Amino acid sequence: MFHLISKISILCEPGDVQEVARLLGSKDVRVNCLDEYGMTPLMHAAYKGQADMCSLLLQHGADVNCNEHDYGYTALMFAGLSGKTDITSMMLDAGAETDLVNSVGRTAAQMAAFVGQHDCVTVINNFFSRARLEYYTRPQGLEREAKLPPKLAGPLHKIIMTSNLNPVKLVMLVRENPLLVDVGALEKCYHVMDLLCEQCVKQQDMNEVLAMKMHYISYVLQKCMAFLLDRDDKLDVLIKSLLKGRDGDGFPQYQEKFIRDCIRKFPYCEAALLQQLVRSIAPVEIGNDPTAFSVLTQALTGKMAFIDAEFCATCGERGAEKRCSLCKMVTYCGLMCQRLHWFTHKKICKGLQEKDAPRLREHLSTHSIKQTPTSPQWPRPESCVRTSGLKL
After folding, report:
1. Is 273 part of a structural domain of the chain?
2. Does the keyword Zinc-finger apply (predicted)?
3. Which residue range forms the structural domain that includes residue 212?
4. Is residue 67 part of a domain?
């Protein structure tokens, strides 16, 4: 028996899925068998970053919350340590508990943060079970119809699960799904978000972070509904309003005021998180650092704000690789985002070219096109960060 356990654990490392599937078919092998350290095959596969192997083991009934490990590690902790966001999501979808702690009292998110796997931290912190949302797709008690039509559960869950809280990105997620571009649908969705917000505050272990996120999404959905009622059929006017930068530096004032107003309208004034956000944002003049978006993002996702990464100037997506071909200072995740942003970026593009030309020529001669810590202070990353190749 122990020989078979060791063989499965060894095969999990190179990811020999077919051989492990054959071994699991043996009546002498249990999918949750333990090695000498208390590790299951699922833990081995998660730590080694073997997504196919993890999927196979879960299909065979692997216990995602087994914590027989000598130091109390779980499969989710190993997934976080591996830095694989897809495996981390897989563990969460399989029912992994996020609040289990190991022998040193750390959760999976804390372990991932300790080794610098911040993307996995974000996935864990933003996880929301689909089952919690589907509860509202069934009539409860004396209700004649459910609060949320089943067809809206998928699109709404996608919005809830996004780790990119940029309001432009959220509006784009609404716009890309025809089921959501409807006043009646948005009204049902934001009512459910409000109920979830209330539930997070009133439950025994109050979850202020999730409550604030539900409120934020509800606020965005309500704004989408308001613009649809004003005949903004494709939400283009709302997106342009959020992107429009002020003269001089391109700072998106409406977006800043939008987020501040959302935070101000959080209905639970006694919440410590709300008070923390207000203390961080209220003294800051609009246009200065930190922006409301950066403070809110760090509070809700745990991301260290905008370190060692490029963000799309339009939707705020991390890892933007296309740069304005003229000023070389603004990055985008694709041509669509560049086109959406051009109406406001063109007002400052020439100024950025002239101001940064000497430094840029020197930098391009020795490095890839990327801002350095000593770069001049251009508009905020989340609103106007700027990798090469797009033609305007």
Report:
1. yes
2. yes
3. 128-291
4. yes
- Report the domain count for the chain: 3
Residue-level pLDDT, tens digit, the chain, 392 residues:
444 555 566 556 565 788 888 888 777 778 888 888 899 999 999 999 999 999 999 999 999 999 889 999 999 999 999 999 999 999 999 999 998 999 999 999 999 999 999 889 888 988 998 989 999 999 999 999 999 999 999 999 999 999 899 999 999 999 999 999 999 999 999 999 999 999 999 988 788 999 999 999 999 999 999 999 998 788 999 999 999 999 888 999 999 999 999 999 999 999 999 999 999 999 999 999 999 999 999 898 876 544 557 899 999 998 899 999 999 999 999 999 999 999 999 999 988 888 765 554 554 444 443 433 333 333 333 333 333 333 33
| Spatial distance between the Cα atoms of 171 and 154, rounded to a whole number of angstroms | 16
Quick one: 250 and 349 in the same domain? no
Nearest alpha carbon to residue 167 among 123, 216, 203: 216
For residue 11, which amino acid is it?
A: L
Among 109, 125, 141, the domain boundary falls at 125
> Does 262 lie in the same domain as 228?
yes
- Cα angle 324-328-329, degrees, rounded to a multiple of 5: 95
